[in-house]
Design goal:
With 262 residues, this protein is mainly alpha-helical. It is built from eight helices and four strands. Strand 2 (102-103) and strand 3 (107-108) form a beta hairpin.
Amino acid sequence: MPKTAVARPVPRILIAACVFLFLSGFFVVEFPDVPGASVGSYVFNVLIALPAFVALRQQLGAAPAVLALVAVSLFGYLIEGFGVATGLPYGEFYYGDPLGPKAFDLVPFLLPLSYVPLVIGTVAVFAGPGSTLRRIIASALLLVAVDGVLDPGAVSLGFWVWPDGGPYYGVPLSNYGGWLISGLLASAILTAVGGARFGTSPIRPGLLDSLILSLSLWLGVTVFSGLVFPAVLAAALLVFLVGRRAQLVRALRRPRQVSLPV
């Protein structure tokens, strides 16, 4: 019998990429000032984001996918720029130089490449039948958990800076309140654009892949930076996401029921 298109719960290439990104965390931590680091950051972000962008097109279709990417990207720029300029809703912070040039000297241009795939992944985790509001809330809460890994690692690398510090590895708790607010809005935007394709259509496992890849890199960063709790949190999230991905694969394999005329 011919093999189905979806053959493995976790493709070998995804496993290999996760291992590579985890090990890359060592070089990111130990050699932050290597020549070409800024260019490498863009390359890494593009490659990590690509699976989610491709899967989103397959899930929604070309035009809705582009609309979703543009809408969430613009939202990300606006709320992050507002946050840097005013301190709301995250608290007072600013982006460091390692992330390269910034739009209006506030937000790095590469923001959509790093932020939008996280939103796609967390929305996809909870996509399917059920209350839209509950799905949005769950997606936002998962985004907050993901940021519990990202922020400590990013602060340790100087990617962004909290001048007054904070109790969680130098990050203030207000940041996570801000992520909950922004996560609710970003998840609502993506869910609204996706419509029924996130509710009743089969969910493509590839929508989770960029989130899995990103967390693999940040797991490496937190491990090699000695950030114990964020590393444990990253590992737990990866186990959860890989399990959810396997569920989505099994759902795609399951034959659909077809109603026949009587």
